[in-house]
Amino acid sequence: MPTVAKRTPGTALPHLTVEERIARGKAARAEVPRSSHGVFEPPSNRVDPIELLEQQAESRVPELVPIRYGRMLVSPFTFYRGAARIMAHDLAATPRSGLTAQCCGDAHLSNFGVFASPERRLVFDINDFDETLPGPWEWDVKRLAASMLIAARDNGYRVQDQQQIVVETVGQYRKAMREFAAQSNLQVWYARLEIESLLQERSAELQPRAVKRTEKALAKARTRDSMTAFSKLCQSSNGSVRIIDQSPLIVPIDVLAADHSRAEILKDLHGLLRTYRESLEFDRRSLLEQFNLVDFARKVVGVGSVGTRAWIALFLGRDNDDPLLLQLKEAEASVLEEFLAPSEFKNHGERVVTGQRLMQASSDIFLGWLGVPSGLDGKARDFYARQLKDWKGSAEIDQMIPEGMTIYGRLCGWTLARAHARSGDRIAISAYLGKGDTFDRAILDFSEAYAEQNERDYQALVAAAESNRITAQTGV
After folding, report:
1. How many Cβ atoms from other residues are within 10 Å of residue 34's Cβ?
2. Cβ(419)–Cβ(359) under 8 Å?
3. How do the domains of the chain map onto residue ranges?
4. Distance separating alpha carbons of residues 415 and 402, to the nearest angstrom
5. Cross-strand partners of 372
6. DSSP 246
7. N or C: which end of the chain has fewer CB within 10 A?
8. Where do runs of H (alpha helix) occur along 326-437?
9. Which pTM value belongs to this model?
């Protein structure tokens, strides 16, 4: 099995000719046949998946871990969303082409969505990079494809529809990579999916009801900004604006650190945020300095991330009607680092930000990182920051019909290929994939086998909750 050579994100690939890069991809195909990716056979000594989750819980906020388990217990799909580390263990034993790219590390379908570009256009892209690391591009493809199949099963689709969704998703990845292989470096770098333009181009292919539903969802996404979040999360009293206590999901810093004065807390936070400002471009730093920090709170986010330390910071600009809400999310080591070269970045927040900037076509203007030498528990931790809401929208997976999920899968496949093409050898990867659907069918086989494994792992979590091995808090 080829080894994965470490390559620093953002550095140039070896300057091979197009012909040499094509030969590189075909040589990898000869050494690791595309059909080999269809095999998933868990070893008899496979690590206990619940043990892996328990190990992750050791570094998390203890009182929030039951919420994580409760959210994972909702369905096999929500379990899959929180099981990136489990799948990383399984992927490590699968065939590798030897071709690498910057990986998302957790490329399931719910980690794609729409958000605002700095030019105030709605773009579709990957939106979660907590596990990003250079590695085998096929790991991301397998994580995405398996998520499509598991979600389709959860929705009760026919087997034929399930299979079609996976094949279309992977096929679009392969076709898009072939298109990017023929483009110039700058064409690839500037490529992005603008939703409004895409909807206009493809509206004839969609049912009028689907177009109307999509337009409604996009209009809703445009309302999800700092002002909307501000109205839901904050309140004004006697001229002061504060984040509302919604424990345990949102807990203001005054409540968490009740034995410290508010002035003392804010002074310390101002000092920490100065280090975050240094990670921003000068113009964004100048913009941020026009806002004043007025409150801070811990917030529970996502499924797999629950229990990691996530904060929201409330800033005010020209007056109380000019808010900015930033999310500061803890960044731990990527789950991929157990099986690949460790990150070159000492700060995992910088790892996340660098990977995100490399893979996304447009990134949040306040995307940056910081290190906290001593948190509330006295331990040093890494964080990355971005706006809490900026026209952010996610697909309602459980409301999709098969045709809608097929289209969505194609969008995800194209987007993932674009992200990999920006950092990996797109010509070699395309040559490896080829023109036919051999790889697509292999990934379908893998996805079906892995969906069965995910079901078994989900049932193991159910049993762990029933036996009181773990404590799960549902409905939160």
Report:
1. 23
2. yes
3. 18-222+397-466, 226-387
4. 20
5. 381
6. B
7. N
8. 348-359, 402-423, 426-433
9. 0.90
